[in-house]
Design the sequence.
């Protein structure tokens, strides 16, 4: 599934709406996260330039979602940083996150194909809507 972040539950700009429609057609679930560990990611320069409908896409598993729920509960209870990282280490997504083992071999070709197809179809849908 796709994790879309930082995307609040009430946000629905044209790009996000088009992306979610494309994902539905491709039968890929989308989960919104207001934050995923940090809000420093590729979407920031776009938002700083005024594109409010910018977001980051990350491919995740059901196990990642379960760990994220535990992480956000611990964060709400003001757990200290080592406890938070211990929780995150249980998610497949974060096993190699910002570690020396975070190399291209860990990339999933199927995830890259799914994501790039969704982005391409979103661009086409946005172009059609703009006409």
Sequence:
């Amino acid at each position: 599934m796709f994790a879309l972040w930082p995307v609040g539950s009430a946000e629905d700009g044209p790009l996000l709406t088009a992306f979610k429609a494309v994902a539905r057609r491709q039968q890929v679930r989308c989960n919104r996260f207001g934050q995923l560990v940090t809000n420093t990611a590729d979407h920031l320069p776009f938002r700083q330039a005024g594109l409010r409908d910018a977001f980051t896409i990350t491919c995740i598993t059901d196990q990642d979602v379960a760990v994220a729920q535990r992480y956000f509960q611990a964060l709400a209870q003001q757990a200290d940083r080592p406890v938070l990282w211990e929780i995150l280490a249980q998610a497949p997504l974060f096993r190699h996150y910002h570690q020396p083992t975070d190399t291209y071999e860990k990339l999933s070709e199927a995830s890259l194909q799914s994501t790039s197809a969704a982005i391409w179809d979103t661009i086409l849908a946005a172009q059609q809507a703009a006409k």
Q: What stands out?
A: Strands lie at 2-5, 30-32, 56-59. The chain has a mean pLDDT of 87.
